[in-house]
Specification:
The chain has strands at 12-13, 16-17, 27-33, 39-44, 47-48, 51-52, 56-59, 76-81, 87-91, 95-96, 99-100, 104-107, 124-129, 135-139, 143-144, 147-148, 152-155, 172-177, 183-187, 191-192, 195-196, 200-203, 219-225, 231-239, 243-249, 262-271, 277-286, 289-290, 294-295. It is mainly beta. The strands form 11 sheets. Strands 26, 27, 28 and 29 form a 4-stranded antiparallel sheet that branches. A 3-stranded antiparallel sheet has the order 3-4-7, with no helix packed on it. Strands 8-9-12 form a 3-stranded antiparallel sheet, with no helix packed on it. A hairpin with a 5-residue loop joins strand 3 and strand 4. The two termini are 16 Å apart.
């Protein structure tokens, strides 16, 4: 990055590249931060700075590698933290610290393994929490806690499976919760339980399917929302007469006349507290300006 060696990970502060280079031997797929500035990394790696760390690692606030090492026998596809600092992970693993944990696990604040054990029968791709500490997951599973749950599920704070059950049969790309705990499901299908929903589906915080139903004609890879309930989606392909690869949709499901034209594909979006949108992907320009793979 900017001609500085950064192997699969880079730390940027105030727009400046930090010298921290942790040198993972594989791909980092997700990053989470705690309230103390510690960084949790998940992905398809086995070493950090030549030290064994299978699929997950913790970088301390002082930029040193922490000794915390759960010793997964697989990879962590998703990491998130609750308000108290408990760590939730989902992935491909079936044991942690040598203890059986099928693809879902929770760690206490001190890093020890919690008794929370929902038990998924196949891989977890995404894990997110609502404001009540309830867990939403998506992946390749068909049962959670030996109860039928197809590709998506909600788990109560006590680890028991919730009754909420959309029963989605086709691929789910990701799930997203907005600040009001509304649930957005990004998928590859055009209907849901008999309702027309094209690639993006919204549930209210109480679990009811929302009437919000924009017609999206491209594959969505990422979504974020702002404080005014506008949704921003990015992906591969073009959509509507207004936007290419990136779109803004209001709370009524109407597309807004907003978005630069990207010369490539968008894979990830993020938003700060001021509703600035950060875009990452495989592109070389936005409009008439050159921007290589990342832009604000």
């Amino acid at each position: 990055v900017e001609d500085k060696p950064c192997h699969n990970f880079v730390h940027i502060a105030d727009g400046t590249i930090n010298n921290m280079d942790i040198n993972p031997d594989g791909v980092i797929t997700n990053i989470a931060l705690d309230q103390n500035g510690n960084i949790y990394l998940g992905g398809r790696f086995t070493k950090i700075n030549n030290q064994i760390h299978y699929g997950i690692a913790k970088i301390r606030y002082d930029e040193t590698l922490d000794t915390w090492n759960p010793n997964l026998n697989g990879f962590a596809n998703s990491i998130t933290l609750d308000k108290l600092g408990h760590i939730y992970i989902g992935g491909t693993f079936t044991s942690i610290f040598g203890i059986e944990r099928n693809r879902l696990a929770k760690f206490k604040v001190d890093g020890s393994l919690d008794s929370w054990n929902p038990n998924a029968n196949n891989n977890i791709n995404e894990i997110v929490l609502n404001s009540d500490g309830e867990v939403f997951i998506c992946g390749d599973f068909t049962t959670i806690g030996y109860q039928p749950r197809n590709k998506i599920a909600k788990i109560k704070a006590n680890g028991l499976v919730d009754n909420w059950y959309p029963n989605i049969e086709f691929g789910i790309r990701t799930i997203y919760l907005d600040p009001n705990d509304n649930i957005y499901i990004i998928s590859e299908f055009s209907s849901l339980n008999g309702h027309n929903r094209n690639r993006i589906h919204k549930y209210k915080s109480n679990g009811e399917l929302d009437l919000w139903s924009p017609i999206v004609d491209f594959v969505i890879n990422s979504i974020v929302t702002d404080n005014e309930n506008n949704a921003y989606v990015g992906g591969t392909g073009g959509m509507s007469r207004y936007d290419t690869h990136l779109a803004k949709i209001n709370s009524n499901g109407d597309f807004q006349n907003w978005a630069p034209i990207f010369g490539g594909y968008i894979y990830v979006l993020a938003m700060d507290n001021n509703s600035n949108v950060f875009v990452g992907g495989d592109f070389a320009s936005t409009g008439c300006e050159k921007h290589k793979n990342i832009v604000k």
